[in-house]
């Protein structure tokens, strides 16, 4: 009943004109059915109204809304256009028509409709720019965005849309020029500098990105994100001390997100691998508790460096941030087994299998851990589960059979132990 009352309030009875009581009964029946989402019945009632009043704009409008609700977009568009014949340039009808045309992805038709809507509300100018982008009329889209910016100032939405357009046209130079203009017009806007640095980086214009970062820092000494470009520039120029100083600022900054900090640290770790003379500086950075570090990235780095104790420590720490991450769980279990921490490996693999129950490697690792704690029945149970998930991996089959042989041997079943050892040998031959 509440829906029906609300629906009836959408329509002013006076808008219907001088109509019969029968017409009104059918019309409000249509609103009732629409209110309870019986759109087909609403359309039937409206068509009975239309038979009495074929030139009634309200009826055509309501038909359009119901067809739209049923996603019968062609019928909806036809009804709404008919409504506009009798009520030209009506804002509500045009808005519904725009919605239908956008749903149909008929962006060219939507352009015409939105141009009419702009006379009611200039907010539709942004829609027009977006539609031009969809119809690949990029010059018109940029022109429209510039017009809005000149009248209202820039906005994040329009800046992002402009960036999308420049990416589609691969016109980075135009984007850079636009940002340079924005910096001149509003030197207090730090984001324009950062966007320009990003564009220059995409253009591989590293010197320009570096100089823009220097300009930003000169204008805004507290703009710590500028050091994202500076540390790269310093590394390229071989100015390692300056690079490290900038990197430390980034890692301690509240203005830089954790993911970006992880990438910075990863860059520096890669650089230190290629330039061992800065390894002491890297250790200093990693040992500084004030730096925001990603333990997963550090675990992977030390694993690559074959420093297993440090990798193990960082992967264990990474569980706090990545409790269900497969890479973290897998590497942690492998390193725990390597460090003879078999009870810990059982806990890790049990947690991992709750999230990844079809990963055969986890069953294998758990089987190894159980075998090394003399829990042979559990080992066999894990291995028998896991072997069903192996697909075309003869080496993993061989490893599974070897561990099953160990489990049977531990249980005193030498016949089975020999059988599975032989199966492991056959699987190894297939793998080779």
From TrEMBL:
TPR repeat spans: 57-90
Keyword Ion transport among record annotations: no
The keyword Transit peptide is assigned to this record: no
Superkingdom in the source lineage: Bacteria
Coiled-coil boundaries: none
Any matching Pfam family: TPR_8
Keyword annotations of the record: TPR repeat
Entry-linked InterPro entries: TPR-like_helical_dom_sf (IPR011990), TPR_rpt (IPR019734)
Protein name per Swiss-Prot or TrEMBL: Uncharacterized protein
UniProt source species: Croceibacter atlanticus (strain ATCC BAA-628 / JCM 21780 / CIP 108009 / IAM 15332 / KCTC 12090 / HTCC2559)
